[in-house]
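Cross-posting from the chemistry board since nobody answered there.

I work mostly on the small-molecule side, so proteins are not my area. We synthesized S-adenosylmethionine and want a rough idea of how it might sit in this target. Sequence and SMILES are below. Is it possible to get a predicted 3D structure of the two together?
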Amino acid sequence: MTDEPFEIYLVTPPGLEPALCQEAREKGFADPVASVGGVTVRGGWPEVWRANLDLRGATKVLARIGAFRALHLAQLDKRARKFPWAEVLRPDQPVKVEASCKGSRIYHAGAVVQRISAAIREELGAPIAEDAEIRVMARIEDDLCTISVDTSGELLHRRGHKEAVNKAPLRETLAALFLRECGYDGTEPVLDPMCGSGTFVIEAAEIAAGLRPGRSRDFAFERLATFDPAAWDRLREPPPARPVPFRFLGHDRDAGAIAMSRANAERAGVAGITDFRRQPLAELQRPEGPPGLVMVNPPYGTRIGNKKLLYALYASLGEVLRSRFSGWRVGLVTSEPSLARATGLPFAEPGLPVPHGGLKVGLHRTAAPLK
Ligand SMILES: C[S@@+](CC[C@H](N)C(=O)[O-])C[C@H]1O[C@@H](n2cnc3c(N)ncnc32)[C@H](O)[C@@H]1O
């Protein structure tokens, strides 16, 4: 299986599959196909590594390492024992097995976990542990058992250079896909007037500078039998720095948020092209230079109190942007469409709501630059 291309499944929250599919295609992954909750591409292990390193929108990357039919548990047991685990897993690395069953004669996921764990432990010799970094997933659907390995480990929104987080931070993977859905491609400035820990501003600056999202972290695939450290080192060789002729701006009324954003930008290596300044929304001014994109995720939903104040805040955001940001586009992320409407901004129909932190958030985009 090491040389043959296989299916690589890129997980994303439902609603964002088309954006991730577009990103995968743009970044040269073969035959991306979107389905509910993810995008399938084809490739070998180098593509698995590159997907983890380069894709901004994937939550995690699963390698589908094989499949066999299993009509009953004895057959599952026998075939799991014959499965070529040693081609992918290492006997010295603990493994955790997860399972799901759908529309199959085998319907008890716990029994599947037990059989596959026994096969890995007894045939390969790898320990089975609840807190293992390597996760094997068995999915039985229509009596076909598909085996995948989670090659990412920690979720990919953890870029590895963001330690400081404010209340209600947006996941980087979501922020990157929302930027993409607003047509952002790194060639215009981005401003966030309520930046919190700086997620939109830092993602946008990294995209403009050509920095790879996975450059500062490690991945579960480094502990698989298929890993080739020399090839990985060559792959992650940083591309030449791309000059960026404008700055990315973040404001917040909260001094702690600004300090966090600065620290995060520093660690991400984009301090030179970002500017974070404490400032309440009412004082927001249009920056000098070319127009670009305002990306904002104001307080919302159940997380931060009083509804009336929220409507007033969204109304003043709309007023400030309409009166001072002619030529700019706006992308606004919030949990309630009525809050987006309170801005009075000319938003196009919102996309599907996306699950995030126990709520559903939607992206509201202006169809054209503000007049
Ligand atoms: C939902 S959080 C933004 C989170 C951010 N997207 C992140 O990923 O960390 C909303 C932010 O709006 C800020 N905020 C609320 N009212 C404000 C105002 N009137 N002016 C400026 N910032 C404000 C809060 O301090 C908070 O950091």
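Reply from a structural biologist on the board:
Welcome over. Reading the output above for you: The CA atoms of residues 95 and 128 lie 5 Å apart. The radius of gyration is 23 Å. Happy to explain the token format if needed.
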